[in-house]
Every structure is written in C-alpha cells, then in structure tokens.
Amino acid sequence: MLAILSLTPSYYLVLGALLFTIGSVGLLVRRNTLVMFMCIELMLNAVNLTFVTYANALNDIGGQVIVFFTLVVAAAEVAVGLAIIIAIFRRRQNVTADDIDLLKG
Amino acid sequence: MEAIVFFVCAALALVGAFGVVLARNPVHNALFLLLTLVTMAVFFLLQHAQLVAIIQVVVYASAIVVLFVFVITLLGVDEHESLDEPLPLQRPAAIVLGAVLLVQVIVLAGRHWVTGAASQRGALGSARSGNVQTLARSLFTTFLWAFELTAVLLVIAVVGGVVLARRGRQERRVPAVKPADSTATAPKETV
After folding, report:
1. B70 assigned to some structural domain
2. Which residues 59-118 of chain B have a CB within 8 Å of chain A?
3. Mutation for testing the A interface, residue in B31, B34, B43 having most A CBs under 10 Å
C-alpha cells in the first residue's frame, strides 16, 4: 500500500501513454471532423503531460518551455483547423470525413 | 495526499478521454475534453509547473474549448454520424494498432525514463516560490529566437483563419446560405 502511495514519474508516463492511445484510436474510429480534432487535442495534451513529467524528474526547465511552445502551436492549429471545417461546412452542409474524398484516386 | 489527488484526477482524466471518443453529441465531446484538460492542469500543479498549469486553464480550457463549442453551435449539432464503415476492417484494426501502440509506449516509459544527463537549460527553481522566473529567464534567453518565431506563426495562423473563413467571391452571389452564419462569421459582407 505504501509503495502505491509514493508517486513516481512512471505513473504520469503511463497515464500519458493511455491518454495518447485513446486519442489516436478515437482519431481513427470517429468520422465527425470536429470530434477527430478533439482527439488530436487529447494526444497533444498527453504529450504535454509527458514533457512536464520529465521536466520534474530530470530537474530541467526545458520540458516546461517546450510545453509553452506546444500550446502556441496548438492554438494556431485550432484557429486554422476550425476555419477549414467552417469552409467545408459552407460547401457541403456536413462535416463527415468520409464525404471529403476529392483526392481519392 | 498527493497520491490520492493523482489517482482521483487520473480516473477523471480517463473518463474524459473515453467520453471524447465515445459520446455521440459533439457538445458532450467538448465538455468531456474540458474535463480532461482541467485534470491535466492539476497534474501540472502536482509537478511544480505552476505557470504551465495556469496557461493550460486560460488558453486550453477556456479559449480552445470555447472556440470548439462556438463552432459546434454555429454549424448545428450533427448527431447522425453514419455508423456503417465504408472500410470493413478499419475499427478492429484501429483498436489492435492502438493496443500495440500502448504496449510500446509503456515499455519505453518503463525502461528509459532517466538518462542521468545533467540539465542543459537550468534547474526548475525552488518548489516553494514557484518557477515563473526561471521559466521566463529560459524563455527570453535560450529560447528567444523560437519565441519570436511563434509570433510569426500566430500572425500566419490568424491571417489564414480569416482567409479560410471568409466567403469566396462567386460564392457570395449565391443566396442559398443561411443569413445567420453570414452575420456570425463575416459581418461586413452582407451584400
């Protein structure tokens, strides 16, 4: 019991791995582009958790700075991605990923 | 105490993650995502990353989730997502590949988590007074060039978002689009 109660970085790393996996499976399974986008956010957050864990474990501020940059890139990605979704919705009135197959061979 | 907070928040984060994947209504998906993001901020606080935790709440949990909910309400809730797969094997294959990915990452996390290398960019700072100063010093000295580049990136993203979301010229003449979304996204182009 006491061994469980002392937190090691491995707990955070395993949690990050679980969240990343759930996000990636969701990205592959769902067809609504908005939900796929949320799954990408989930994966980005799992990676952020890993960075902060390593920053704490190795006593290095670099991990937290990288999280800062990841947040900036995620904000830019959300702005552009949601604009793309709105543009797609204007043309075809739904946002299902299966309908966007113009580049299919 | 710390362990109790961790396990409660870990359970909540996993509930939120499964909710993002499994919920049918996109608004519920966004709210489950919010749950996961807030618990993530708690994990950052537990690991002495105060500034990152605050940024997580302000930028992610507020701005990005609000943007998601805004777009969902703008587009209307689309609940009839087709459940029949055009590719028959995709769902089982996705779950199997996800399990393989999980095993790989956990093995990596168990084996290689401490290198013992000395810190290149400075220590975290004291846990008592917070590490905002340390983070700021590192950001504005070592990472200054990357920090300036993020400004360029954000400007490009904003310009790209405006260009993508505004209406094209030939599209504007077609009156088929509902007037509600023209006032919400491009107020000047009422024709």
Report:
1. yes
2. 59-60, 63-64, 67-68, 71-72, 74-75, 78, 81-82, 86, 90-91, 94-95, 97-99, 101-102, 105-106, 109-110, 113-115, 117
3. B43
Domain boundaries, chain A: 9-100
- Residue B28's domain comprises 1-77
In a domain, B110, yes or no: no
Does residue B188 form part of some domain? no
Reported ipTM: 0.89
Cα distances from B54 to residues B18, B69, B73, in angstroms, run 25, 21, 27
Per-residue pLDDT of A23-80, as tens digits, reads 999 998 888 888 999 999 999 999 999 999 988 888 888 888 999 999 999 999 999 9
Give the pLDDT confidence of B4-63 residue by residue, as tens digits: 899 999 999 999 999 999 988 889 999 999 999 999 999 999 988 888 999 999 988 888
* DSSP string computed for B58-107: IIIIIIIHHHHHHHHHHH--------S-SSTTHHHHHHHHHHHHHHHHHH
pTM of the model: 0.83
Answer whether residue B51 is part of any domain.
yes
From chain B, pick out residues whose CB is under 8 angstroms from the CB of A75. 59, 63-64, 154, 157
B6 and A CB contact within 8 Å: yes
Chain-chain contact of A69 with B49 (C-beta, under 8 angstroms): no
Place of tokens 């499976």: A25
Please name the helix (run of DSSP H) or strand (run of DSSP E) that holds residue B143, with its range, or none: none
Domain boundary among the residues B39, B61, B77 is at B77
Q: At what angle do helices A9-29 and B2-22 cross, to 10 degrees?
A: 10
Chain B residues with CB-CB distance to A67 below 8 A: 49, 52
> Looking at chain B, which residue has its C-alpha nearest residue A11?
B6
Give me the CATH topology for the region A9-100.
Answer: Helix Hairpins (1.10.287)
CATH of the domain at B63: 1.20.120.1200
Q: How many CB atoms lie within 10 A of CB B69?
A: 16
Tens of pLDDT, residue by residue over B71-81, are: 888 887 666 66
Indicate the number of domains in chain B. 2
